[in-house]
Amino acid sequence: MIMKNLKLILIILIVFIFASCGKQEEKVKTENQGSTQNISPNTQVNQPDVNNKWVGKYSFDESAKNVTGSGSQTWGYVITVKENADKTLSAEINVDGFQTSTRIEADVKAGDKSADFIFSKYLPENMFEPYKKGDRLFTFEINDKNEMITNWDKMKANVISNQKSGKVMFKKMSS
């Protein structure tokens, strides 16, 4: 009888050990990742009412005195955010100006108070290719004063004084 019980305990123990050795799914912790980390394509769920808040055309213009002293160097940023058929958001980002022609498409991961712009692909007539798929370009965030601030990440403003995050940069031109 003791042998029978011992065999039963041994069998249960072996089954338990083998069952616990299987692959377990782990959730990736993202709260401590740096701002230059690639962002998973599905980090936030877009909701139609949240989408309506972010859909529209945004612009930002900047200029810097030309280092040679003649004229100035200017850049115009235009971002068009649209809702796709699957209720996700995407954006076309165009930057034109001094030695610049940026044409890119980004996925927009929107929440109530912020929207992350995640690089998706280059579009025709783009000059340079510094980004890779999944790079967070920048974030729009609504602050306590209900102002939309820009937090730069992989993409930066051209004028050094505008590269500081947390400033009001873009204005919504239309919905």
Structure characterization notes:
- The chain has one domain (48-174).
- The chain contains two helices and eight strands; from the N terminus they run ααββββββββ.
- The protein has 175 residues and is mainly β.
Draw up the topology in text.
Blueprint: H1 2-20, H2 48-54, E1 56-65, E2 72-83, E3 89-97, E4 100-110, E5 114-122, E6 136-142, E7 148-152, E8 171-174
Antiparallel strand pairs: 1-2, 1-8, 2-3, 3-4, 4-5, 5-6, 6-7
Question: What distinguishing features does this structure have?
Answer:
mainly beta; single chain; 2 helices; 175 residues; elongated; eight-stranded antiparallel sheet
How would you briefly describe this protein structure?
The chain has one domain (48-174).
Give the helix proportion (percent range): 10-25%
Element order: H for helix, E for strand: HHEEEEEEEE
Rg, Å, rounded: 24 Å
From the N-terminal CA to the C-terminal CA, the straight-line distance is 80 Å
The protein's oligomeric status is single chain
SS elements, strand count: 8
Overall residue-averaged pLDDT value: 82
Supply the helix-strand structural class: mainly beta
Number of H/I helices: 2
Q: What's the domain count?
A: 1
Weakly predicted, low-confidence segments: 23-44
Strand order of the largest sheet: 7-6-5-4-3-2-1-8
| Beta-strand content | 35-45%
Largest sheet: 8 strands, antiparallel
Q: Report the principal-axis shape.
A: elongated
